[in-house]
């Protein structure tokens, strides 16, 4: 009998797929397209099984859609620029390109080893001039439209990396993500920005187009990041500094302005220096200001940090009450939000309450909740922040109004009296793309003493990175010290000029890469709009929740810019988004730095790529985290061996003789087996098409395999056995394609399985005798499941764990005991 040898089988079928060009696809208006994509990987080190999960999920989707007759595009490429490559080059005395391309070779070797169905003709690498030329082209178009500009800005600066860090790269309360012993500094330097705020309303409104296709939590995260706030700007006159314009404050709660007991300014507010000049507290204030300016620029850190601040010695006047109020500086006020100044209303804002209690500032209640004893600011234990109830108190002529009524009336009065106006602002800030490093896209701008800032003409693109930079990791940008790059001539006057030495944030590379996949070798344009019109939007995008905000937000922004340039016709690039769970080992995410990785290539050499694919799909629902288990992966290996033995046994017993359908109806044993096969097919089809319950689909295939083993001793004729085996193999094919192809050939088929469509189940056989059972958790009924009569306990348990009503009662808990009364009840005892 033939034995299952995954290494030889997988090499054989990968060669056949390549020779037959199975996974290549081109525009074909006669066929319905399907664009499935996993997020662009950064080629660092080697791939481990934590990386492979989303690729396995994407490949199942791509293969099922091909079997369903879709024209599938499934590309792969490399997010190849970035600081890690530059740091590795400095450490190892190599060129970043050498380090990057070595990793790309290793990544591609591993992905090919797993047989993922990529169209490798479409491969791109963002560090190649053929790609980054178009980053520069897009930048110039944005510069023309006023969407790219330069200004001074506070930034996170790592003194070891010698570059600006994004907020997400500042970790553990203020340290560099790459140098966890290096405290990040806050500096103010000239930066290039892209005007994402110009699209703030569209980015917010168009989230409606994504509802039902994107996870609710991702839409919520995007909405919160954009952060639309409706309120009013109010001017507070400075009482004891002459010649200073009023301080403007943005507030969403103008109804609480009579409760304001101080103004608090951001440390980098332009008025702070003027307020301190000649102030009785100037010496102390200058020292405190210097300390606060060094604090993190990261909003999350500021929100959770200990509140710090100081009194400037100056006062302002409340325009509503006429009250004289102290002006403070506080570390929790951001210049980047609103106006960089707030009115502190401690009785009705949690952060204000914490600050004012710490520094002994008064707390005055101005909104009294309904049906409770009057609140007293002196004894208040926490801020009352509810704005949907209560009435105004201590608010002069506005007493007795509800907060909503007061917001409307006070906003109108502020406008009428000239000291305020109603306004909408956004939390969203413009995107700072400047990076002081070598390994990125050069910004295509030239500085001329005569003509000022001059864009590089399109005909001179790409502006190439110099081949031999001096990478020391110290001082300014490596490009700034590379004279052959810096020194150039002005395109306008022909005189001496200097190039911009900052490079672009790598989020630029990943904001539009999926468009380039559709036309990867176009030398005349970023892509052909006609090809984009066929392939877009992306039908299914797959990646981790860590990219739920910035990467997706920037991609949506880039799409809208391209739409306005006339390159695309759609508003949103991604129709459906799926965020897979992480692969854990020892309770933490697999990571080379943690030393808990399972090498993907090594795993494939030991068990076979199909075993690794099957395990990652079976061990947990794809949206949940998966705890790696060596014992469980051996179980996946044993299952594939069992299926292979079934087919090998059939090949030996029946294929020596003609296997054809005979006259007469199937007998009772055959009917039972056919019914099980078609019921399984029906439910696996549903799991693949509608729910992505790959783990329950595999459980069903395991049950069908058990039935086939039991049927070996019954009076099942060869044609029935062959039909059921074929259905089993076809259902396994998207998940374990190599062994499925081999078994398909063993069953007597001369053409590859890739030529076969997804099977259709027989309604007569697939009809379930459906019943409803109650599911209890710790003795309480938490939901009901519709199951097939006689359903196996393991399958019912899986269904319960994935049911939207029952799952919340199991989430984060361990099932310590289960009681299953077939066709009646499942009771789960959890801890």
Detailed description of the structure:
This protein has 26 helices and 32 strands. It is of the alpha+beta class and 831 residues long. Helix 18 crosses helix 19, helix 22 runs antiparallel to helix 23 and helix 22 runs antiparallel to helix 26. The longest helix has 25 residues. The mean pLDDT is 91.
Question: pLDDT average, as an integer?
Answer: 91
Main sheet makeup: 7 strands, mixed
Task: Give the tally of β-strands.
Answer: 32
Given as residue ranges, the uncertain stretches (5+ residues, pLDDT < 50) are: none
Structural class designation: alpha+beta
Radius of gyration: 32 Å
User: What is the share of helical residues?
Assistant: 25-40%
Strand content: 15-25%
What general form does the structure show? globular
Q: Give the number of helices.
A: 26
First-last Cα distance: 47 Å
Quickly list its features.
831 residues, alpha+beta, 7-stranded mixed sheet, 4-stranded parallel sheet, 26 helices, 18% strand, globular
Summarize the structure.
With 831 residues, the protein is α+β, with helices and mostly antiparallel strands.
Please render the helix and strand layout as text.
Layout: H1 6-20, E1 33-38, H2 49-67, E2 71-73, H3 83-92, H4 96-113, H5 129-144, E3 148-158, E4 163-165, E5 170-171, E6 175-176, E7 185-194, H6 200-205, H7 216-226, E8 228-238, E9 247-251, E10 262-265, H8 272-276, H9 282-293, H10 299-304, E11 309-317, E12 324-330, E13 341-344, H11 350-359, E14 367-368, E15 391-392, H12 403-417, E16 420-426, E17 431-432, E18 434-435, E19 445-448, E20 452-455, H13 483-486, E21 487-489, E22 496-499, E23 503-504, H14 507-510, H15 513-516, H16 529-535, E24 540-543, H17 550-564, E25 577-579, E26 583-585, E27 588-589, H18 600-607, H19 609-618, E28 626-627, H20 630-654, H21 668-691, H22 694-710, H23 718-732, H24 737-746, H25 763-766, E29 770-777, E30 780-788, H26 793-802, E31 815-821, E32 825-830
């Amino acid at each position: 009998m033939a034995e299952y040898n995954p290494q030889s089988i997988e090499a054989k079928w990968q060669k056949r797929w390549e020779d037959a060009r199975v996974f290549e696809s081109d525009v074909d208006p006669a066929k319905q397209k399907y664009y499935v994509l996993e997020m662009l990987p950064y080629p660092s080190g080697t791939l481990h099984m934590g990386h492979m999960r989303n690729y396995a999920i994407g490949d199942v989707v791509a293969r099922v859609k091909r079997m369903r007759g879709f024209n599938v595009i499934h590309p792969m490429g490399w997010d190849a620029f970035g600081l890690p490559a530059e740091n590795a080059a400095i450490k190892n005395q190599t060129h970043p390109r050498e380090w990057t391309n070595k990793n790309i070779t290793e990544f591609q070797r591993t992905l090919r080893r797993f047989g993922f169905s990529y169209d490798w003709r479409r491969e791109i690498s963002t560090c190649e001039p053929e790609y980054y030329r178009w980053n520069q082209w897009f930048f110039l178009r944005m510069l023309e439209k006023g969407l790219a500009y330069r200004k001074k800005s506070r930034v996170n600066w790592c003194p070891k990396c010698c570059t600006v860090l994004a907020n997400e790269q500042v970790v553990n309360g203020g340290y560099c993500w790459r140098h966890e012993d290096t405290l990040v500094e806050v500096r103010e330097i000239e930066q290039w920005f892209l005007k994402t705020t110009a699209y703030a309303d569209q980015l917010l409104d168009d989230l409606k187009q994504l509802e039902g296709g994107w996870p609710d939590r991702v839409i919520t995260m995007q909405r919160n990041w954009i952060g639309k706030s409706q309120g009013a700007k109010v001017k507070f006159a400075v009482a004891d500094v002459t010649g200073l314009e009023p301080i403007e404050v943005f507030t969403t709660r103008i109804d609480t302005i009579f409760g304001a007991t101080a103004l608090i300014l951001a440390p980098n507010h332009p008025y702070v220096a003027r307020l301190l000049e000649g102030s009785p507290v100037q010496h102390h204030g200058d020292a405190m200001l210097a300390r606060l300016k060094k604090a993190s620029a990261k909003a999350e850190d500021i929100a959770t940090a200990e509140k710090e601040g100081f009194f400037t010695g100056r006062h302002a006047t409340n325009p509503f009450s006429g009250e004289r109020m102290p002006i403070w500086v506080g570390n929790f006020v951001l210049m980047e939000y609103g106006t960089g100044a707030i009115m502190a209303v401690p009785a009705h804002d949690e952060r204000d309450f914490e600050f004012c209690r710490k520094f002994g500032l008064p707390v005055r209640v101005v909104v009294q909740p309904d049906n409770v004893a009057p609140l007293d600011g002196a004894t208040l234990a926490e801020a009352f922040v509810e704005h949907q109830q209560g009435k105004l108190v201590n608010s002069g002529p506005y007493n007795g109004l509800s907060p909503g009524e007061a917001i409307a009336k006070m906003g109108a009065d502020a406008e009428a009296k000239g000291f305020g106006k109603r306004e909408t602002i956004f939390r969203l800030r413009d995107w700072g793309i400047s990076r002081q490093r070598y390994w990125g896209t050069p910004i295509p701008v030239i500085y001329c003493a005569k003509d000022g800032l001059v864009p590089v003409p399109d005909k001179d693109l790409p502006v190439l990175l110099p081949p031999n930079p001096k990478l020391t990791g110290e001082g300014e940008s490596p490009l700034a010290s590379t004279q052959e790059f810096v020194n150039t001539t002005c395109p306008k006057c022909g005189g001496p000029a200097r190039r911009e030495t900052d490079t672009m944030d790598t989020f630029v590379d990943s904001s539009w890469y999926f468009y380039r996949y559709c036309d990867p070798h176009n030398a005349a344009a970023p892509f052909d709009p006609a090809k984009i019109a066929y392939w877009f939007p992306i039908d299914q995008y797959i990646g981790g929740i860590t990219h739920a905000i910035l990467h997706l937000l920037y991609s949506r922004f880039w799409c809208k810019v391209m739409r306005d340039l006339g390159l695309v016709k759609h508003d949103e690039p991604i129709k459906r988004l799926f965020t897979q769970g992480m692969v854990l080992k020892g309770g933490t995410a697999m990571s080379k730095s943690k030393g808990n990785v399972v090498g993907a290539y090594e795993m494939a050499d030991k068990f076979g790529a199909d075993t690794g694919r099957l395990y990652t799909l079976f061990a947990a629902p794809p949206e949940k985290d998966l705890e790696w288990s060596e014992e469980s992966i051996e179980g996946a290996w044993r299952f594939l061996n069992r299926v292979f033995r079934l087919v090998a046994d059939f090949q030996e017993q029946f294929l020596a003789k003609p296997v054809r359908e005979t006259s007469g109806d199937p007998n009772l044993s055959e009917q039972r087996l056919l019914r099980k096969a078609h019921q399984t097919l029906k439910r696996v089809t549903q799991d693949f098409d509608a729910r992505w319950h790959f783990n329950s689909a595999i459980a069903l295939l395991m049950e069908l395999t058990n039935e086939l083993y039991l049927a070996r001793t019954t009076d099942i004729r060869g044609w029935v056995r062959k039909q059921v085996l074929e259905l089993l193999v076809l259902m396994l094919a998207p998940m374990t394609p190599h062994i499925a192809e081999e078994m398909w050939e063993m069953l007597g088929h001369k053409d590859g399985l890739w030529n076969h469509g997804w099977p259709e189940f027989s309604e007569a056989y697939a009809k379930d005798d459906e019943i409803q059972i109650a599911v209890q958790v710790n003795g309480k009924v938490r939901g009901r499941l519709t199951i097939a009569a006689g359903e196996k306990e393991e399958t019912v348990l899986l269904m319960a764990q994935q049911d939207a009503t029952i799952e919340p009662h199991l989430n984060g808990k361990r099932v310590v005991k289960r009681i299953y009364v077939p066709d009646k009840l499942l009771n789960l005892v959890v801890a």
